[in-house]
Amino acid sequence: MAENQTPTEATTTQQSRQRLLLPNFKSSVNLKYVKLGYHYLITNAMYLLVPILLLAISSAHQLSTISVSDLFHVLHLLRSNVLLFALTSPLMVFMLTLYFMTRPRNVYLLDFSCYKPDPPRKTSRELFIDRTIKAGIFTEENVQFQKKIIERSGLGQETYFPEKLISLPPNPCMAEARKEAEMVMFGAIDGVLEKTGVRAKDIGIVVVNCSLFNPTPSLSAMIVNHYKLRGNVESFNLGGMGCSAGLISIDLARKLLEVHPNTYALVVSTENITLNWYWGNDRSMLLSNCLFRMGGAAILLSNKGSDRRRSKYQLVHTVRTHKGADDRSYGCVYQREDDKGKVGVSLSKELMAVAGEALKANITTLGPLVLPVSEQLLFFVTLIARKVLKMKIKPYIPNFKLAFEHFCIHAGGRAVLDEIEKNLELSDWHMEPSRMTLYRFGNTSSSSLWYELAYTEAKGRIRKGDRTWQIAFGSGFKCNSAVWRALRTINPAKEKNPWMDEIDNYPVEVPKVTSLAS
Asked: What is the DSSP letter of 304?
């Protein structure tokens, strides 16, 4: 009981609780990340100066208003002055060429598909604990530890595990891991190809991310082989980059689409559970067993202007933050062997603090790109007052609800979602897609963001022009963001996604503690 604790024990308990909390975002921000955000803003704004300059040149020829008669007047002036025409034409051609060559290509999201495993792979909380006990590996203390984690995790009764992890006896092996990867990836890819009508041979770029399962040949080669993609396809396989790798894949695909015109990019985000179950008794590694579940998503991107009308979203921004230079950040999610030689992923007690620092850096960079001018001015004036004038005033925390209509926050765990909700002052409605994804599908790693967006679509919440912020965390330590703008209103009646046949059952109330059935 708390009233029987000694002063030393009470202090230790308080310190432990503090380690589990994200740092308060109302503390000081790092000025370099603000500078980085404004650098991005200015860099992108430069592309807008070219058409403005062209307009200024036209104004120099007495174009007070843009009309047909004015244009004929300019042509008459040019024809009557050969020298002026000779000087102006190459300049106009040069400026137009510069504009079209240097402007970033628009990247459109045609559609995406999330894999929904078959019902026999559903794993209730009770079944999870039953298989944990019957494995005969975990001590009684660690069985009870995992039971407490499950009861407080925010996971529901219908998450999914690979067949050979819940069968008796379990059979985690390379063949079963490959079977899981093929089932998830091909299921998601088949779904997105069916929804878009794009032929596999028209895909020019493939980016796959899976943190812990990296066989030879690679997962991307597995896709190339299965779908018989063309020989000059640009394929990439990202490993070891954690739960934030999905947005890294999106950013990589975006950059590739900028240099490869008129093509499609297929992004596949997944994690493999079969070979990454931890069979030991180090508690820092047991958390992964309790939270991670089976899932994956496939996303089809295009840079073809003709695809804009049928696309769902346009990619507006990607912002990546990497804190790996800091030793504490680098080691807070670390794959290693325990003292018995069993391999697992260790989660440090500093994880929440590290995640908070990475998030703060990321949103400080993102802010100047997305926030209304009024919010930026308030933030910037307050920052100058505190940093330059040394005034003792509270920092202004921008209202990101003015920048985005929808939030897709990586469903890494209940504690993370609670702290982000508090620090960004989000409502239950904003957090609903993330919480329901955690409840229904568990932590599906990098693909969780797409289950969340699918939930938002299934609820009929996406309207033309709406902005959605996807944000994820991962080992390294990294925090990455992507901003999408809806190009059309999404009609849920026409959607095919893993929520559609049960969306009316959500949201549900998720208790802080859900006791397991006896």
From this structure: -
Instruction: Please tell me the pTM assigned to this model.
Output: 0.83
Whether 80 has a pLDDT exceeding 80, the answer reads no
From 210, 289, 406, 408, active-site residue: 406
SS3 312: coil
Place of tokens 């794993």: 123
pLDDT tens digits, 135-168: 999 999 999 999 999 999 999 999 999 999 999 9
Catalytic residue of the set 114, 209, 210, 243: 243
Which residue in 423, 443, 480, 497 is the catalytic one?
Answer: 443
Q: Could you give the 3-state DSSP secondary structure of residue 412?
A: coil
H helical segments located in 60-110: 68-80, 82-102
End-to-end, the C-alpha distance of the chain in Å comes to 25
Q: Is 114 a catalytic residue?
A: no
CB-neighbour burial class of residue 441 (10 A; exposed 0-12, middle 13-18, buried 19+)? buried
Q: Which of these is catalytic: 276, 317, 322, 362? A: 322
Query: Is 73 a residue of the active site?
Result: no
Is residue 322 annotated as a catalytic residue, yes or no? yes
Catalytic option among 281, 408, 410, 479: 410
For the segment 237-263, the average pLDDT, to the nearest whole number, is 96
Chain segment 59-73, per-residue pLDDT in tens: 544 444 556 666 666
Known catalytic residue at 443: yes
